[in-house]
Amino acid sequence: MSVAGELSIGVRVADGEVRAVELASTRPQASRVLAGRTPADVARLVPMLFSLCGHAQQIAASVAIEAAIGEHTPDSERDKRTRRVRLEAIQEHLWRLMLDWPALLSLPPLRDAFARWYRRCAAAREEAEAGCCRQLASELVDYCDRTLLPLPLAQWLELDDDAALLEPAAAREWGPMLQALSAFDAVAPAGRIRAPVLLPDLSAAALSGATQVMDLEAFCHTPTYDDHACETGALAHGHALPLVSRLLGQGRNLAARVVARIGALVDCVLDLAGNRAVTQPVIDSHGIGPGIGLARIRTARGLLMHRVEMQGDRIGRYAIVAPTEWNFHPAGAMVREFVGARFDSDAQLLQRLRAMVLALDPCVAYRIDVSHA
Amino acid sequence: MCLAIPARITQKLDGDMAVVDLGGVRKEVSLALIDGADVGDYVIVHVGYALSKLDPEEAARTLALFAEISEALPPQ
């Protein structure tokens, strides 16, 4: 087993019906190596520890420590951090939408275009200068309108009818993916369809409240909000978008998640372009008490939390809850959507499981085992 | 969660592909997202792509940190 660990998804089937989904993780709790270090050590170590959302992780660490010690962050630095998180989220959204979803749907991935935009986002993130980011966002809007999306980006967030996406005349690079996804989701498994339980877009203060209703260690392993194992990420953020809401109403939860991810990408690009007011901060922090601070960041995968307790001028206790902890909770979305569903074959079940895992987007490797009673 | 374990490039292949050694496991990855990576360099890898390049000292420090995690910490 690698030090990175993995997520294990065990699915038990009897008479064509999923009877149980068991999730287990062998991931180490890496944040524990931060205890006893200085804030400067943490700033150096966090980006060494995390490969994905590394900038969000690094910023979350800085913001949590600043909240703990009551240090004020200048507006210019806060805005620059927001742009960095946005650029990183765009990279992750493009990865899922240009490489992973096409591959899952047996379509050719858009490798060259992905590499081009990924590198441009990485370059812009170095200085994260406002004008440079606006220029990149404007070019990305143009690219989406001309090449990717079947309709102009600005209309995407208001769209309420998926028929517009499926017209051949409107096809762009993502046309085949949306058509394949629609066909894939049209053969949803038989059985009861359950509505997703979504994590609200909590402020740092509200998230801090949620951490206090249970033991912090337990919260880090299996977080809940209001006693529920909630889903975070694009669907939780974009569930009220007209088309997403319509798809959820039809029980097409998988398509809703992909459309919500495109919505999240559009959101990031339009925010970065700076031509609209941001209603909810991407980065938020809360001073819980003397020497205790919490940061929450909206990443591509969902809410990321860092919570720090200082002991003098060193870190006493450090806790991280990544979106994967919410989305692969042992009583979470995988269980809700699969237990009780019926499938014609193991192949159909496995394809559906892989699609669901991709929609929930774990940040670690995973393994699926299907067994029959 | 998404740990950044360094992998060493052992061979360059056609196009932008390369073979890396990740803790004794050989993997083929694309170098399309980074510049100037060569045999012997350390990179951070995620599902088939090298995401960033590390200098040897940085890689050694990171590997030591993961050795510490591996030895000292129980899994979640």
Helix content of chain B: 10-25%
Oligomer: heterodimer
CATH topology of chain B: SH3 type barrels
As residue ranges, the low-confidence spans of chain B are none
Q: With helices defined by DSSP (H or I, 4 residues minimum), what is the helix count of chain A?
A: 16
The residue ranges of chain A in which pLDDT falls below 50 over 5 or more consecutive positions are none
Q: Which architecture name of chain B does CATH use?
A: Roll
**Biggest sheet features of chain B:** 5 strands, antiparallel
What order do the helices and strands of chain B follow?
EEEEEH
End-to-end separation of chain A in angstroms reads: 28 Å
Strand order of the largest sheet of chain B: 3-2-1-4-5
What's the pLDDT, averaged over the residues of chain B?
Answer: 87
> From the helix content, strand content and strand pairing of chain B, which structural class follows?
alpha+beta
Give the overall form of chain A.
Answer: globular
Largest sheet of chain A: 4 strands, antiparallel
What series of H and E elements makes up the topology of chain A? EEHHHHHHHHHHHHHEEEEHHHE
Number of domains of chain B: 1
Describe the structure.
The complex is a heterodimer of chains A (373) and B (76). In chain A, 50% of the residues lie in helices and 15% in strands. Chain A is α+β, with helices and mostly antiparallel strands. Chain A folds into 2 domains: 1-72 and 203-228 and 282-353 and 362-373, no CATH class; 74-196 and 231-279, no CATH class. In chain A, the strands form 2 sheets. A 4-stranded antiparallel β-sheet of chain A has the order 3-4-5-6, sandwiched between helices. In chain A, strands 2-1-7 form a 3-stranded mixed β-sheet. In chain A, helix 1 (39-49) runs antiparallel to helix 2 (54-69). Chain B is an alpha+beta fold and 76 residues long. Chain B is built from 1 helix and 5 strands, in the order E-E-E-E-E-H. Chain B has a 5-stranded antiparallel β-sheet with strand order 3-2-1-4-5. In chain B, a hairpin with a 4-residue loop joins strand 1 (6-12) and strand 2 (17-22). Chain B is elongated, with a radius of gyration of 13 Å. The model of chain B has no long low-confidence stretch (mean pLDDT 87). Chain A binds chain B through residues 2-5, 25-30, 32-33, 45, 47-54, 111, 115, 118-119, 122, 220-221, 320, 322, 324-325, 363-364, and chain B through 1-5, 22-23, 25, 30, 32-33, 44-46, 51-52, 58, 61-62, 65-66, 68-70, 72-76.
